[in-house]
Amino acid sequence: MTIKITAQQLSMRFKDRVLFHIPTLSIGPNDAIYLKGDNGVGKTTLLKILSGLVKPTTGKVEAPNDTWLHKLFPRTGRKDVIYLHQSPYLFDGSVYENVVYGIRYHREEAKDKRAQVINALRMVGLETLADEHISVLSGGEKQRVAMARAWILRPSILLMDEPSASLDQESIERLVVMAQDLLDRGSSLVITSHQQNALTELCRKQWWIKEATLIESPLLQVISDKELNKPYASSKAN
Questions:
Q1: CATH number of 5-221
Q2: Model confidence, pTM
């Protein structure tokens, strides 16, 4: 199932500092969005708000049928929206146990779990490490395990926070294949990255957080970093 999420008057404040205020925001089915901005502007915070992990100072994120009220508690195995952190949390166990974690909650996906997990790990080039303890993996390999764990759930929206930061080119290309597969299935992606690469090239929309607000641009009207740094009045903002 694909979903659309929207937000109105979304803001985040830390004491006297307003991190951002976004009048409107929406992510629709099959959206692919490249989220940019300088360090500290709130990209990660925004993704955590969209995933239900952090509560904003004002406003709220809404989805059909009050999906958001349930968030992503592990005991329910919610898979509508998944947040993939730059330094993902992995459990103290095997690579297999980490990837199978989500699908064990879904009866329709519980059959042939081993085959599903091995297929996901094959896509990230780690199938031979399925029974190894997660501690033997490098940082880049752990990021690939986290992507396999997210991909196997077929989320409606996948929020990827600097997913390629610790990856080599081959690993990035493997993630691209999985991300493209999700898009082909109707999922949506939001990707943050400090540099353009094969993952960001999948995106058809671009968002910037600048001067505490969100600037949107479709792919055909890409705003370059040079243009972004011009006086704010010359930019189109929501």
A1: 3.40.50.300
A2: 0.85
